[in-house]
Write the structure tokens for this entry.
Amino acid sequence: MKYPVSITRIERSRLEEVNFDNIVFGRHFSDHIFIADYDGQNWTDFRIEPFAAFSIHPACMGLHYGQSIFEGMKATKTVDGQPVLFRPEMHAQRLNASARRMCMPELPEDLFMEALDVLVGLDSNWIPPREGSALYIRPLMFANDEFIGVRPSQKYRFVIMTGPVGPYYPKPVRLLAENHYVRAVRGGTGEAKAAGNYAGAMLPTKLAQNKGFDQLLWLEAPEFKYIQEVGTMNIFFVIDGVVVTPTTDGAILKGITRDSILTLLKDAGYPVEVRRITIGEVIEAYRQGKLQEAFGTGTAAVVSHVSHIQYQDILMELPSVEKCLISNWAKDHLEGLRSGRFPDPYGWLTPVHALELAEV
Ligand code: COI
């Protein structure tokens, strides 16, 4: 190993507390956590410890000024029991793209990969065996200077925590197209996986949830015409047999699941268009009976069907899940590739090597 990672193991695993048949998303944390600190010049002090709270100084800059970025990725087990990471190098690269935008230090890609291998190897028993479930992996970097004053922090902390998850959206989602609040504009931070993007979306999302919706469909300001994404996933439409998803333009998260689904669909011969699309076009397609499917993609969401989209006083009710042939195909192929049921011609699966750690 290139990076010396010190390992302190838990004394007793908490795994037996988790019911793999009914896993609530985001509630369970595996036995260990990876931690590294940036001292102003270098990443240092690589360690894996029993998962526990750590103390934070009240003047921690990440809390005050929001230099905080994260990733969401998954490990699964293939049908022959081999733990695999899904496109980890893409997540390393996106973390570093977020870091650059938020004026934070990049993390060496090979450190990211090594830390993941050791951590997931150690807690590989926490990977749920059932297809559709996974070990969710949450890398997080935040500013850690103890300082009151607006400037980039010098010290940072990077952690990786993991936990078993089931589906994020167990049923199709109802979307409200937002025409007052804004998630992101070009030139802003929308393309970064920055904590503040999610914070700014909380109030409008809560207002929509109070009206019975699950999530917002964000539109581009100031015209509120062009569709961007859903707060937790990228958005796709199937219009008259063609799969359409918005171009990422600097204000939309470059979803790794989005990219994977686009690749799978294109290679299977489905007509796919990556372009700007307006809410008006979607409404028009609906009125003509040509809006066949809408679905979201994301690490947590995987492929999630959309049941309704409301824009002002227009409520569009989409076909039921059984009729969503393209998104069902895409979901099955993504899950099947991750579980080894389908081949992986793209090299998207990275086997976890450090498995002997789990056995000690
Ligand atoms: C993910 O899909 O991993 C995210 O970070 C989104 C969040 C809704 C969990």
About this structure: The chain has two domains: 6-166, 173-323. The helical segments are 61-65, 88-101, 109-122, 195-210, 256-267, 279-287, 325-338, 356-359. The mean pLDDT is 96.
